[in-house]
Structures are given as C-alpha cells and as structure tokens.
UniProtKB/TrEMBL annotation, chain A:
SMART domains, per database record: AAA
Residues spanning the signal sequence: none
Entry protein name: Sugar ABC transporter ATP-binding protein
Tagged with keyword Nucleotide-binding: yes
Source taxon at top rank: Bacteria
Residues that span the membrane, as ranges: none
SUPFAM superfamilies on file: P-loop containing nucleoside triphosphate hydrolases
Annotated ranges, domain ABC transporter: 6-250
GO molecular function: ATP binding
Keywords: ATP-binding, Nucleotide-binding
UniProtKB/TrEMBL annotation, chain B:
Pfam families given in the database record: BPD_transp_2 (PF02653)
CDD domains per record: TM_PBP1_transp_AraH_like
Domain of life of the source: Bacteria
InterPro entries: ABC_transp_permease
Identification of the protein by name: ABC transporter permease
Keywords recorded for this protein, A-Z: Cell membrane, Membrane, Transmembrane, Transmembrane helix
Compartmental location: Cell membrane
The keyword Transmembrane helix is assigned to this record: yes
Transmembrane feature ranges: 48-66, 78-98, 104-123, 130-149, 155-175, 204-225, 256-274, 295-322, 334-355
Keyword Membrane among record annotations: yes
Topology versus the membrane: Multi-pass membrane protein
Length: 258, 360
C-alpha cells in the first residue's frame, strides 16, 4: 500500500497503574475509512486521543504523512487539519450552536470593525452553521442561536459531527459518532462519512455498531487489552468473527495479527 | 459473510423506507408549558431580566415609600456616584466569576494601586500621568500574579486570591505606613489623581466622572465579552474548561488575560476612588471584595461560571445602592439595610439555581 497518513508505533499511556495503551501500533491509509473496534475500556479512545494530542503518550512515536509529530494539545493537531468528534462531544453547553461550531476559529468582520475592534461576523457564522446542519438533515433545531444545552443528545452529536466534517482537511477521528443517534440520523452520519471519504479525507471510526462498521469500513482495527490485536478486511471476515476476536473468544490467524 | 457487503451501498435492510420519511422541519408541539415554565425559559435566555425587573420595582417602591426625597434627579445621581467604585470592582469581579473563578483580592489591588499612585505623585514628585500609568501596570501585574498561580500552579482561585488579598493588603499598609494621604496634599501636588471626582450638572442631577467611568467600563467589557472571539472563549471556559480546551481554546492563556484585565480594571477603580473619596486611605473599601461579589450575584451572574451578562453586575450594584439610599431616606436603621442586602443575595442565588434547571 501507499504511505500511511498516520503511523504510530509502540505507543504507551499509563494512568497510575492502569495501562490504557500498552505498546500499541496504529496505521491509517489515505482515502480509507478505518474502523476501530474493541470492548469497553480496551483503550480505543485513549489511542486516538494520543494521535490527536488530547493526551500525551508516555512512550512511542507518531508520524503524520511521514513526519514525526509531538502534539501537546489538540489545537496543534487541529492546526494541521485533523478534526476529532470526542465521545463526550466537547461542546460548551451555554453557548449557541453557531458559537460552538466556530470555537477557536471564529470569523471576524471585515475592515475596521473586525481588524481593530475584533468584532465577530455572527451572521456569516450562523449561515455557515445552518448550511452544515442542513446537510446532515439536522435542521430540526429551532434556532441556530439556541444554546447547545437545550438540544437533545442526538442533536448535540450532530453538531459535533458537522463541526468536524466542515473543517477537516487531513483526517477525521470519530469516537462513537452514532451512539446517541436515531436510525435516520445515523444513516445521515454514515452518508456524510462516505461523502468525506469521497473528498479524499480518511476517517477513523470508533464504533460498537457492527452493521455500521461493516458497511462503511475499508479496514477494521481490532483493539484488545490496550493494543492492536489484528487488522481485518471486512470482506474476508464476518461480524461474528470480528466480535470473537475482540472479546478473546477466538484467536486471529497469525498472518493478520498486529 | 458477503451479506453485509452486498447491502453496503443501500444501508441496512430495515432502513429501506427512510427515503419516504418525513422531510419537513420538525414542529414542536408546545405542551405543558405553564406560565411559570415559560418565565423560566425567558429568564434562561435573558439572565439580566431579573435584576432589571428588581431595579425598576425597587425604584418605584422606594419612590412611594420615601417620596420625592428619594425620587429626585439629585438623589438618583447621588446613588450612581455612590455605587461607582464598587460598580467598577464588580465589573472586574464579573470577568473572573464568568470563568467560574472568584477574586477576593479585587479591593486590595484597587487600594494598593491608589496608594502606589499617591506615593509616587504626591511624595516622590513623579508626574501624575506617569504615576497613574505605573499604578495601571501594577494592577495588571497583580492580576497576572493571581492568574499565574491559578493556571500554572493549578491552585483554586478562592485559595489563591484569599492569599493574595492578605499579601496585597500587607503591602499597602507598608507602602502607606498605615497613614492616609490628605486631600490637600493631593490637590497641591497631583490634582490629576482626583480627575474622576469632577462632576457636572444636568437638570437637577449631578453627574460625576467616576459614574461615567463605571458605565464606560461596563460597555467596553460587554462588547469584549459578547462581540469578540475572546469573549466567547471566556464564557466557554467558565462553562466547561475541559471541553473548551478540547475544542481548541488555549484556556490557560485566556484565563491569564482575564486576570490581567481584571487587575487593570481594579487599578482604574483605584484611580477613580481617589477622586470619589477625596483622599487616599489604606483603610478604605475593606469590604469592597465582598461588596463586589454581592453586586455580581444580585446581577444574576452564576457563581458556577459561564452564565449571565456583565451588565447584570451593573444593575446589581445599582440595586444595592437603591436599597441603601431608599431604606436610609425612609428612616430605617442601617442594620436593616444590611439585613435586606443579605436576603437579596440569597434570593438571587436561589433564582439562578432555578433558572439553570431549565436545560433539556
Ligand atoms: N483520564 C484517565 N484517567 C485514568 N484512567 C483512564 C483515563 N482515561 C482512560 N483511562 C483508563 O484507560 C482504559 C482505556 O479507556 P478508554 O476510554 O480508552 O477505553 P475505550 O476503549 O474507549 O472504551 P469505551 O468503549 O467504553 O469507550 C480504561 O481502563 C480507563 O479506565
Ligand atoms: Mg471510548
């Protein structure tokens, strides 16, 4: 295959005497949707957080497009065009939908107002936010100015997904983006992922939903006990195989192990 | 296995009717919304409404009780003048409280900087303008010191500012030798220090410069908090600091700027206090810290951070002033003024809790 977009090797992260990541490797290739599956507490969130700078690994090396990176905060990753939808969404409840979509990359008015008085261009941000939510079929919200805390869990997830999809240029990490979504909304998110992939932007998808994983993923990274157990091609294995590997019910064949 | 992959393009089989699903934007049937419920929502969206209503009602009430003594242009402008220093401190305090912090040192920074300005200009012959600039820089420095302990050493704001309150207070006693600088000495050597004590008359009202400064401070800070990205970040940090960090805000840097700015505002209060009081007294405004918190709380700004408008603190300060003046002019003993303010605080926090329960 071509050179990986992300290549991480020997990543270790310890919290006290819990080892969340135990010498794990990780690769993401251009243009693919990579699913990451594993039991609760296997360390899926931990490893993607290490990749995007939300946590700093104790050991190991991360290369992005072949260049070694040492992110100290998710802002560093974001500046490179890496977006993440966190499992807990990372939204500010009291701020509006539009404010949340633009946190840290607000649009300022042109001319004197923006340059010297640093005034925000709220209409521009609101228009953009409304467009992105409509693309996701999430315009069931009453107003783009309403605070995020007045949205349902699924609507909040939609806001977080829309934010990531709108701004990513290198790759997107989605940590259980459909966990709180209804059937119709999940479908929209899956379609959106395919669109993003068609734009040439690879995606890392963490999910417990096997039908979703097998539908969209090009490769599946099976995470078990803090490290990558194996990578499988969804065309070669069944959902029950995948579940058997990730729970330890079955050993994966040697040629695909980590 | 090929089952799952075959269907990949059409999605799951149970989803095949999704194409026919309703397309129109959802209509929410408004049900079960009692009047109380709707009020709760209204206040949630407009947190400043409570203090505004309280202010208007108390103005009308005291107008009836105390009569024209109270409801004259002169008395109303006097109230404005009386609350101006605490009002400016409350503006600084609001900034901190919106980030879910608290600052017990605001009044100590203010008095310390007025002593610094006075010492330099009155006793050491430094030009007034330069003395004032030094005081302003000192205010920023004192605020940054608080901010540094809070962001870099990760100390809780309450403990940090409890400590720096004592430190700044001791420093100001030392610098002033526990002595006041008399008004005559200021007039003779550095009358510019009293700039904000000047006033002009319109109608029967006497408007002091310190009252104008207070309003200006609030307007500028309101603009910064509501119309700039920095302001949105300040609210996001107060709301949920971790989420703010993860969604791309440099939280420590922003917090540091908030504390520095609050220190600057305190130094302005220090300058204005010289004109307002007429002298520089190390003992003045000893309760200023708590008074500023009172104004913020009565103004509907949540002590839990992230909620409330800074304008609320202006109304909060005015409400306290109106109660003091109204009760005094009605011939009520000072102790009952204190009693009333206490109840105002309790009620304001109770309302805040109630409004916060509205979400989802
Ligand atoms: N901040 C933290 N402090 C202490 N322990 C942590 C922390 N974050 C994760 N862990 C531990 O690391 C391990 C892996 O957690 P992680 O969140 O990565 O699991 P996960 O695979 O994402 O699980 P889930 O499917 O439930 O989301 C768990 O045992 C967890 O307790
Ligand atoms: Mg997780």
């Amino acid at each position: 295959m071509t050179n990986p977009v992300v290549k991480a090797s020997g990543i270790v992260k310890r919290y006290g005497h819990v080892t969340a990541i135990d010498h794990s490797d990780f690769e993401l290739y251009p243009g693919e949707i990579l699913a990451v599956i594993g039991d609760n507490g296997a360390g899926k969130s931990s490893i993607v957080k290490a990749i995007c700078g939300a946590t700093i690994p104790d050991e190991g090396e991360i290369l992005i497009e072949g260049k070694k990176v040492n992110f100290t905060s998710p802002i560093d990753a974001r500046d490179m065009g890496i977006e993440i939808v966190y499992q807990n969404l990372a939204l500010s409840p009291a701020l509006s939908i539009a404010d949340n979509m633009f946190t840290g990359r607000e649009i300022r008015k042109e001319g004197f107002l923006g340059k010297f008085l640093r005034m925000l261009d709220k209409p521009a941000m609101e228009t953009f936010a409304r467009e992105k939510l409509t693309e996701l079929g999430l315009m069931t919200v009453q107003s783009i100015k309403q605070p995020v805390e007045t949205l349902s869990g699924g609507q909040r997830q939609g806001v977080a997904v829309a934010r990531a999809a709108a701004f990513a240029t290198k790759f997107i990490i989605m940590d259980e983006p459909t966990a709180a979504l209804g059937v119709k909304e999940s479908r929209k998110v899956l379609e959106l992922m395919k669109d993003v992939k068609a734009r040439g932007i690879p995606i890392i998808l963490i999910s417990h939903n096997m039908p979703h994983v097998f539908e969209v993923a090009d490769r599946i990274h099976v995470h078990r006990l803090g490290k990558r157990l194996c990578t499988i091609d969804p065309k070669d294995y069944t959902m029950s195989d995948a579940v058997a590997f990730m729970t330890g019910a079955k050993e994966p064949p040697a040629e695909i192990t980590a | 296995m090929s089952d799952a992959t075959d269907k990949a393009s059409e999605g799951q089989s149970f989803e095949q009717n999704l194409d026919q699903s309703a397309k129109e934007v959802a209509q929410f049937k408004v049900k079960n919304t009692s009047l109380l419920n709707r009020i709760q929502h209204l206040l949630h969206n407009n947190p400043t409404l409570v203090p505004v209503i309280v202010l208007v009602i108390s103005l009308i009430a005291f107008g009836f009780i105390a009569g024209s003594k109270f409801f004259s242009a002169f008395n109303l402008s006097l109230i404005l003048q009386q609350v101006s220093i605490i009002g400016i401190l409350a503006a600084a305090q609001s900034l901190i409280i919106i980030t879910a912090g608290i600052d017990l040192s605001v009044a100590a920074i203010m008095v310390l900087m007025s002593v610094v300005m006075g010492n330099l200009a009155v006793f050491m012959g430094v030009p007034s303008g330069l003395a004032i600039l030094t005081g302003m820089a000192g205010g920023v420095g004192a605020g940054l010191m608080n901010g540094w302990f809070i962001t870099k050493i990760k100390l809780p704001p309450f403990i940090t500012t409890l400590g720096t309150w004592s430190i700044f207070y001791a420093l100001l006693l030392w610098l002033s030798g526990a002595q006041s600088i008399r008004g005559q000495d200021i007039d003779a050597n550095a009358s510019f220090l009293k700039f904000f004590g000047q006033s002009f008359n319109i109608g029967g009202a006497r408007i002091t410069f310190s009252a104008i400064l207070m309003v200006l401070v609030f307007v500028v800070l309101w603009y910064m908090l509501n119309k700039t990205a920095w302001g949105r970040h300040v609210y996001a940090i107060g709301d949920d600091k971790e989420a703010a960090e993860m969604s791309g805000i440099r939280t420590d840097r922003t917090l540091l700027s908030v504390y520095g700015l609050a220190g600057l505002v305190c130094a302005f209060a220090g300058w204005a206090s010289i004109g307002r009081v007429g002298s520089i007294s190390p003992q003045s405004f000893y309760e200023g810290n708590l008074d500023s918190i009172t104004a913020v709380v009565i103004g509907g700004i949540s002590l839990f951070g992230g909620r409330g408008s800074i304008m609320g603190a202006l109304f909060g300060a005015l409400i306290v002033g109106v109660f003091r003046s109204g009760l005094r002019l009605s011939g009520v003993d000072v102790l009952w003024q204190v009693f009333a303010i206490g109840w105002l605080i309790i009620i304001a926090v109770a309302i805040d809790q109630w409004i916060r329960r509205v979400s989802a």
